[in-house]
Amino acid sequence: MKKSLLFIAATSMFLASCESDSKKQSTLDSSIMSDHVSEYSKPDECYIYNKDKDLATLRIYSTGGDKILGQLTYSLDGKDKNSGPIYGIVRGDTIIVDYKFQSEGVYSRRQVVWVKQGDSLLEGYGDVYQINGDVKFKNISKLTFGKSIIFEHTNCK
């Protein structure tokens, strides 16, 4: 059953990547992948950001090839805590995911991009646009990394 779902996800990813729209961001179909984080018992990699009163955690589960699933939580001082699944792809040293999270009882989805530097993941920031309620980056190649949240590799618990 798991293999069938992963095959469907991979096929959906392939078909989506064939579109020529230059603004389209290539990520996995959330309706297929977002509910499958619970199927993986132990994450492959874990990261933490802990500075002053801010805490963020990231758990990554590899699904084979360039696809990943995970769980992301932000608890930043002065902001509402939000937590939810991530699903996306790895391109070289860059991780591009959709983050489906709940904050104050409302579900939202936004794109998150990290670049790997040693044992750290530097979160990217830049201009965004909204499409069907989802927040996406306008141009991933123009993101700024390392100016704010930097996740450090940690042991998975």
Written account of the structure:
- The chain is mainly beta.
- Helices cover 13% and strands 52% of the residues.
- It contains 2 helices and 10 strands, in the order ααββββββββββ.
- It has helices spanning 2-17, 30-33, and strands at residues 45-51, 54-62, 67-75, 82-91, 94-103, 106-117, 120-125, 128-131, 134-137, 144-154.
- Strands 1-2-3-4-5-6-7-10 form an 8-stranded antiparallel barrel.
- The radius of gyration is 15 Å and the shape is globular.
- The model is unreliable at 1-35 (pLDDT under 50).
What key attributes describe this structure?
8-stranded antiparallel barrel, 157 residues, 13% helix, globular, mainly beta, 10 strands, 2 helices
Shape: globular
Strand order of the largest sheet: 1-2-3-4-5-6-7-10
- Residue ranges: pLDDT <50 for 5 or more in a row? 1-35
Beta-strand share of residues:
over 45%
- Please work out how many helical segments DSSP would assign: 2
Instruction: State the end-to-end CA separation.
Output: 28 Å
